[in-house]
């Protein structure tokens, strides 16, 4: 009979799996969280709004008179008071309370408590999870500081590797003991069986938090459940089916409580597994029984890593980066798909570090598993690569490759290292009699498994996840470029930065489209159409428009909003572009410039009627500059300063031609950015249009 766990919100197919779940550490942790949540809600109040210009000390002293306070948390215009017991709460909720003649609005605190292993939509009120996150952040911060103390990139990398994973020999010893115990308890049922570990503990890409993945090969033929059910009873006894194997192993693990604890069967997963805790090694494990293709995939990755000493550090950095930004994990990007995506990037002709799977299989004796060719030649000597890029350069290349990759229309094929359009890919695999529906090419991302050719290992990637991944990759490119200036000494500390995750989530972005429209040819010579020395006039016009917008935006930010600008990224060398030259940059498809803006005045305020009479011959920008100068003088006199810092990127777009301006907050908690950014979004396109009209009317040039 089906069961439902209300604490964890999970359905179970029968009593057996339900009771197994109740013994699991995740369920027990959720029960602990739920009880803590109940205590917090019973003992806490939420007060909002609090009287303006009120000192926090006065508020704390006021509420102390009702009872001893356990914690007191202030936010913007609110306070959360948690008492040591619930008696003060009962009084405050049922009696009117006045603070300095201000009637306080007091409600019971609602704690939005996430279950263990699940992400809550709002973590702000969860003190327990905050404590856990604070501990993790403290560890990462300590790690970051330790990295910064190392004198060279090589020393930093060495420190990073020792911190993120245990020694391979220790892991191997642990895995061997787990497999020996499984073989020992299961040998009476499966005399030919053998436990084989796979996954990150085999490839060498394990972290300190990694579980041990084990495939148990029963050593006998496995029949389909339907096939056996249709046979006579006398033929069923010695025929193993997936369900029968799963049920038997589950029973054996439950019986051996001195070795295996917290046994949690998950029979309805795509690949049914049994989770358990191995007591002798204090290790969490997953055991599966399906075909063992994961074992061959792990051996392939392990072999690839052995070909180049740069691969293991590179992959560990990428895995750590993805985990910290919450891109990878349950229901997100799997580590296997992330690793294969990295391998695919390293197979590309312009990188040329790793051979394709087809190259490795060319001369090897065929070996099949579940109908798929899984062998490869471990003795092959790949063609020597002339790529001598350092690990940070390869990391930047990875970020750039996937930041620009068109996932919507292309398929990645690590078997042959090719990027194939989805239309052509479907035609090709139909000729090979591969199940197109099973491959699920229509998903936002398609990475074909190198062995199981009808399996899309990235089918779990959602469109939102792809956008977040590419956004983080584009930020990664900029971080690598900045780190290159100090010989990459700041790269690993940045990747291990405890606030990196918060930055990725909370960085607000404001988008401003600046269309070319009728000004697309502004600034071009009158005889432009007759020029014969320009091969691609359309590209030249696009470049010229980008240059015009760049100069106007720079003038607006510097002179009207009084920001100090620092160029962070100049992908097209703007200073070298000249209107009369047909340089190589005109053949590029995209142009992008990024700079950091710093300021101390919110000059979007009180601009109306600041200067009543102005010279009508002044341009729009000149008038706005006069207003800003007057505002700055007034604010400086009042010492009214506000720290503002954000990045501004300009990127050329076509169809129709326009420049996309993106403003991204760098301070993450500064409300002034939203205010001034919204003002800029409404004003900058208008200022540019009016400035160009004025310049056209008076025949002025930039």
UniProtKB/TrEMBL annotation:
Annotated ranges, domain RRM: 43-116
Enzyme class at the top of the EC tree: transferase
Keyword Oxidoreductase: no
One BP term from GO: RNA 3'-end processing
Keywords: Magnesium, Metal-binding, Nucleotidyltransferase, RNA-binding, Transferase
Chain spans, region Disordered: 114-136
Catalysis performed (reactions): RNA(n) + UTP = RNA(n)-3'-uridine ribonucleotide + diphosphate
InterPro entries to which the protein is assigned, alphabetical: MTPAP-like_central, NT_sf, Nucleotide-bd_a/b_plait_sf, PAP_assoc, RBD_domain_sf, RRM_dom, Znf_C2H2_sf
Entry keyword Transcription regulation: no
SUPFAM superfamilies in the record: beta-beta-alpha zinc fingers, Nucleotidyltransferase, PAP/OAS1 substrate-binding domain, RNA-binding domain, RBD
MF (Gene Ontology): metal ion binding; poly(A) RNA polymerase activity; RNA binding; RNA uridylyltransferase activity
Entry's EC annotation: 2.7.7.52
Superkingdom of source: Eukaryota
Entry cofactors: Mg(2+); Mn(2+)
Entry function: Poly(A) polymerase that creates the 3'-poly(A) tail of specific pre-mRNAs. Localizes to nuclear speckles together with PIP5K1A and mediates polyadenylation of a select set of mRNAs, such as HMOX1. In addition to polyadenylation, it is also required for the 3'-end cleavage of pre-mRNAs: binds to the 3'UTR of targeted pre-mRNAs and promotes the recruitment and assembly of the CPSF complex on the 3'UTR of pre-mRNAs. In addition to adenylyltransferase activity, also has uridylyltransferase activity.
Subunit organization: Associates with the cleavage and polyadenylation specificity factor (CPSF) complex. Interacts with CPSF1 and CPSF3; the interaction is direct. Interacts with PIP5K1A.
PANTHER family from the UniProt entry: POLY A POLYMERASE CID PAP -RELATED, SPECKLE TARGETED PIP5K1A-REGULATED POLY(A) POLYMERASE
Protein name: Speckle targeted PIP5K1A-regulated poly(A) polymerase
Species classification: Eukaryota, Metazoa, Ecdysozoa, Arthropoda, Hexapoda
């Amino acid at each position: 009979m089906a069961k439902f766990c209300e604490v964890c919100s999970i359905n179970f197919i029968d009593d057996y799996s339900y009771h197994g779940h109740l013994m699991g550490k995740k369920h027990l942790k959720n029960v602990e969280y739920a009880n803590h949540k109940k205590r917090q809600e019973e003992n806490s109040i939420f007060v909002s709004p609090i009287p303006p210009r009120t000192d926090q000390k006065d508020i704390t002293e006021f509420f102390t008179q009702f009872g001893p306070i356990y914690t007191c948390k202030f936010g913007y215009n609110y306070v959360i008071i948690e008492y040591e017991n619930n008696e003060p709460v009962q009084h405050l909720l049922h009696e009117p309370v006045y603070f300095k003649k201000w009637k306080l609005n007091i409600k019971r605190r609602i704690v939005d408590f996430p279950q263990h292993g699940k992400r809550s939509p709002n973590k702000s009120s969860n003190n327990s999870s905050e404590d856990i996150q604070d501990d993790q952040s403290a560890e990462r911060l300590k790690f970051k500081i330790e990295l910064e103390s190392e004198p060279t990139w090589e020393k930093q990398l060495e420190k990073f590797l020792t911190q993120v994973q245990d020694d391979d020999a220790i892991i191997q010893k642990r895995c061997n003991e787990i497999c020996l115990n499984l073989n020992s308890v299961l040998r009476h049922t499966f005399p030919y069986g053998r436990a084989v570990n796979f996954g990150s503990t085999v490839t060498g890409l394990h972290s300190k938090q990694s579980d041990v993945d084990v495939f148990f090969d029963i050593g006998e033929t496995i029949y389909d459940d339907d096939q056996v059910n249709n046979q006579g009873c006398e033929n069923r006894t010695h025929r193993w089916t997936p369900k029968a194997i799963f049920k038997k192993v589950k029973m054996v693990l439950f019986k051996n409580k001195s070795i295996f604890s917290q046994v949690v069967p998950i029979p309805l997963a795509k690949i049914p597994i049994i989770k358990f805790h191995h007591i002798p090694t204090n290790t969490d494990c997953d055991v599966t029984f399906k075909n063992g293709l994961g074992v061959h995939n792990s051996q392939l990755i392990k072999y690839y890593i052995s070909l180049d000493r740069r691969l293991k550090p590179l992959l560990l950095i990428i895995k750590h980066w993805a985990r910290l930004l919450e891109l990878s994990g349950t229901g997100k990007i799997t580590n296997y798909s992330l690793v294969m995506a990295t391998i695919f990037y390293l197979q590309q002709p312009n990188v040329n570090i790793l051979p394709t799977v087809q190259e490795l299989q060319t001369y090897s004796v065929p070996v099949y598993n579940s109908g798929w060719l899984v062998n490869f030649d471990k003795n092959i000597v790949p063609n020597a690569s002339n790529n001598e890029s350092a690990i940070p350069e390869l990391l930047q290349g990875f970020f750039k490759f996937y930041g620009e990759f068109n996932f919507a229309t292309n398929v990645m094929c690590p078997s042959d290292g090719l990027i194939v359009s989805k239309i052509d890919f479907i035609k090709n695999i139909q000729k090979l009699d591969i199940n197109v529906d099973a491959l699920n090419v229509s998903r936002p991302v398609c990475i074909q498994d190198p062995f199981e050719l009808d399996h899309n290992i990235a089918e779990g990637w959602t469109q939102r996840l792809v956008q977040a991944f590419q956004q983080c990759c584009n930020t990664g490119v900029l971080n690598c470029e900045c780190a290159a200036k100090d010989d990459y000494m700041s790269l690993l500390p940045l990747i291990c930065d405890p606030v990196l995750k918060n930055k990725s989530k909370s960085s607000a972005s404001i988008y401003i489209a600046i269309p070319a429209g009728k000004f697309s040819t502004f600034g071009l010579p009158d005889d432009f159409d007759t020029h014969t020395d320009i091969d691609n006039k359309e590209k030249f016009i696009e470049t010229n428009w980008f240059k015009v917008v760049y100069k106007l935006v720079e003038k607006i930010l510097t002179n009207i909003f009084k920001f100090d600008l620092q160029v962070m990224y100049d992908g097209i060398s703007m200073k070298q572009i000249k209107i009369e030259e047909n340089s190589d940059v005109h053949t590029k498809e995209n142009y992008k410039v990024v700079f950091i803006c710093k300021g101390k005045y919110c000059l979007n305020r009180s601009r109306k009627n600041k200067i009543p009479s102005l010279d009508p011959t002044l341009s729009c920008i000149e008038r706005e500059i006069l207003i800003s100068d007057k505002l700055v003088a007034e604010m400086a006199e009042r010492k009214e300063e506000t720290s503002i810092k954000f990045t501004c990127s300009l990127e050329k777009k076509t169809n129709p031609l326009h420049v996309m301006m993106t403003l991204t907050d760098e301070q993450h908690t500064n409300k002034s950015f939203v205010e001034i950014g919204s003002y800029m979004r409404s004003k900058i396109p208008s200022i540019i249009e009016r400035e160009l009209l004025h310049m056209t009317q008076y025949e002025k040039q930039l």
